[in-house]
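Q: My collaborator sent me two sequences in one message, no labels, and asked for predicted structures for both. Can we handle them in order? The first one she listed is below.
A: Yes, handling them in the order given. First sequence, followed by its structure tokens:
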Amino acid sequence: NPTPLDGTQSISVWVFSTEGAGSNYIRTMVGRSATGNGSNTLSLHPNNQKFAFYEADGNAVVVSQAAITASTWYHLVVTFDGTATVLYQNGLSHDTGTLDLADPFNNNSNLTIGGGYANRYFAGRIGEILLFSKTLSATEVRSIYEQSRWRYNI
């Protein structure tokens, strides 16, 4: 279990889902999941095929604007500044929300990649994962996307 990040942080990840709509479970890409319901995780919701960051009570704090296309690479970043949570997709801000936790990644659970509670594994591929102990700016998020998208043929 890695040392938790402090109250400001960001997660960047490239994902490629092979699963279409219709699954019954939230699929965790990266986060800390202890009690189910996608707790403190960046996940793919199966019914609407949108990316979301879920807090411990199972509610989505931020959700991407459009359903994804299966078998396509996406770059996701979720940032947290101590109050506001922002979800970026392919370098652009998609949603902003307020998280009730002082530290969304410190719930005393192991950091998971590609899986979570009750073996609800992400169906697909996960590329580069970057963890930051700061809140990335929109410019920094866009720069990470632009500098790495060639690896995913975008």
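Q: And the one she listed second?
A: Here it is, processed independently of the first:
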Amino acid sequence: NLSTLSLPNVISIGDSAFRGCSNLSTLSLPNVISIGDSAFAYCSRLQYISLYNCSSIGNSVFASCSSLSWVKTGKLTSLTQSMFYNCNNLSEVYIEYSDVPLTLYNNNLNYVFESSPMSLSGSGIFYVKTSALRLAYAAASGWSAISSRIVVSSF
């Protein structure tokens, strides 16, 4: 019945560590730098994620987190296979610390966000901090098809 998880002293989370924790709604991982495959998959009540210092992330980490509505990418440089698969309420992604476009698995947004509003056919919004970065995304492989959904914000 774990509903809140705060791990301020943990730097790594292993594969499937919290997979299926269906009551988990709040997550704080300020010092985590690595998250393994499917670590939070099927956490159906998880509402938002801020990845802070995370720089390494496995596949399907948040797959089928059906209540997830927004994500802050922290220090990630790439988005992995099925990372947000079937996150059908995910409508906002905040790209925080990147100065260049995030690398997409197989250069395809759908491989990361399949069956979610953030996919190529969806309506979800990606927020970046500068106009220059927005232009870089608009020209980047895998991102150019959704350039109208990349918005500058001072979040």
